Amino acid sequence: MTLTLGTYLLVCPLIFLGGFIDSIAGGGGLITLPAYYLAGLPPSLAGGTNKLSAFSGTAISTARFAARGLIHWKQGAASLLGAFPGAAFGAFLLTLVPAAYAKLGILLALPLVAVVVLRNRSLEPRPALVPPRLTLPACFAIGLVIGVYDGLVGPGTGTFLLLAYLTLMGDSALTANGTAKLVNLGTNLGSLISLILTGNVLFALALPAAAFGIAGNYLGASLAMKKGAPFIRVLLLVVLGLLMVKLLADAVPALMK
């Protein structure tokens, strides 16, 4: 594929914006993946190239949260143990179940998720819904379930992880965000290794885009830690709205065929 200056001018700013949003509330893939489609990349190459820039940016935001002590390492490790097999199983389901039906199911659940965010106006920590003795098994289940979603559907994985730690584990908004970043980094790494081995990464575009993604993630993580929960809440609602529109646009035409 021939890359022009126009390609870089189109893709790189969108990767910066996607990284900025992703570091605060997840869902950056709603912007970054379409950016590669707009540049003319076929789906497999767009997915692999996007994963490289996403992994690089997420690594920076994860490091930022870790440096501030805003990652719950035990919860994150337990979730990673579930996320890897979950994502693999989700990818397998994708070969059996029409993706449109999976997206429709998530679409029906999104309004309930939005209600949770709207009711918790400040996103301040609340008592955990999961008893302390079940914390690690519950984190494994969170990783497993959201890992399946990541393999089967994809967009919004970081957002759902953030909300799970916030509501089920009773973590603060910032700690929930940091732990979500750690788990999402792990799932991105697994996907990226597979895509590199199959030749589905366009490095000439992915590497410059990754630099912009790193900058967006760095700025976004800094603002999230500075502005706190109210800022995260606003971005969460925006991302949930975008996710609903995206899934609706994907699922409804496929179901009507």
List the helices and strands and how they pair.
Blueprint: H1 5-25, H2 29-38, H3 43-67, H4 73-94, H5 99-119, H6 135-152, H7 157-167, H8 173-197, H9 203-227, H10 229-255
What this model shows, in words?
- This protein has 10 helices and no strands.
- The chain has helices at 5-25, 29-38, 43-67, 73-94, 99-119, 135-152, 157-167, 173-197, 203-227, 229-255.
- The longest helix is centred in the C-terminal third of the chain and has 27 residues, at 229-255.
- The mean pLDDT is 83.
- Helix 1 (5-25) runs antiparallel to helix 2 and helix 5 (99-119) runs antiparallel to helix 10 (229-255).
Quick structural summary:
By secondary structure, this protein is mainly alpha-helical. It is built from 10 helices and no strands. 80% of the residues lie in helices and 0% in strands.
C-alpha Rg, in Å? 17 Å
The number of E-state strands comes to 0
What class would the helix/strand composition place it in? mainly alpha
Helix percent band: over 70%
Strand content: under 5%
Secondary structure tally, helices = 10
What's the quaternary structure here? Answer: single chain
First-to-last CA distance: 32 Å
Pick out the low-confidence regions.
Answer: none
Along the chain, the helix and strand elements come as HHHHHHHHHH
Main sheet characteristics: none
**Please, how many domains?**
1
Average the pLDDT over all residues and give the rounded result.
Answer: 83
Silhouette: globular
